[in-house]
Amino acid sequence: MVKALENYGWFLPVQASDFAADIDRGLIIIHWAMALIFVLWGIFFVYLLVRYRHRDGHKVERSHMSLAVSMTPDVAVLGFEILLIAVYAVPSWSRMKITVPPAEGAVQVELMAEQFNWSARYPGKDGKFGRTAPDQVDFTNPFGIVAEDPAGADDVVAVNEMRFPVDETVLVKLTSKDVIHSFFIPEFRVKQDAVPGMALPVWFKPNRVGEYELTCAQLCGVGHAIMRADVKVEDRASFDAWLASKKAAEHADAATPAAVEQW
Ligand SMILES: [Cu+2]
User: Fold this and answer.
1) Domain ranges of the chain
2) Pick from 118, 123, 100, 120: which is nearest to 171 by CA?
3) Domain 107-261, what fold?
């Protein structure tokens, strides 16, 4: 079980990917700006209440403020928002969502969401995913990996468990088997809907060794709340050892049919 709660304090969760600081910068700028606007408007409002309060001998009078003066706060807020979109939001969005890193050199993972599990597939030592076929899908083969394809022989499948080597770019191919789910690792500040019929790229570079939690962020049915996976970021050697152990366990399972039959 994940010690993910340790990653949360009074403010934002710990930053565990290269995107985190950038996302947090936006959140912090927007919150401080909103707090400032809230306080300034509050002061102005109280000033008006006092300045124009009811007093004997004073009558309501219309006065005319020039349009330029009355529009100044609105124009200032609008200008700030345009600046935020142009200077911060668009470049960050482009970096995080539009510019897909090349698959070569990245840790590739296929991640399939379904009610209510996350199945991950790693390509194994050859770096190639084996062919899949829908008629091969069963409980022990969630991706339907075709046994005859040599590229698939070393593929590693993990259910509700993902690991990533630290400081390496991870490229996830995200799919869904049934309804819309959403891939969300708060500490990475990465979120992406998993849409049936689409294979969507998600990428990030975990930069903090630790344990995290992948949660489904899209209400997807009665088991939504338990749709989660353990995520561990570790050094390269531990990651490779984990892949090898998963593969060994798979072979052991296949060698003892009883392990399968008990399901
Ligand atoms: Cu879900």
Assistant:
1) 20-98, 107-261
2) 100
3) Immunoglobulin-like (2.60.40)
Query: Are 113 and 183 contacting, i.e. CB atoms less than 8 angstroms apart?
Result: yes
Strands 170-176 and 200-204: antiparallel
Centroid of ligand 1 to alpha carbon of 91 (angstroms) = 30
pLDDT in tens, 134-178: 888 888 888 888 888 888 888 888 999 999 999 999 999 999 999
How many A from CA of 253 to the centre of ligand 1? 28
At residue 158, what is the residue type? A
Distance 214 CA to ligand 1 centre (A): 11
* Cβ pair 151, 136 in contact under 8 A: no
**pLDDT, tens only, 213-255:** 999 999 999 999 999 999 999 999 999 999 988 877 776 665 5
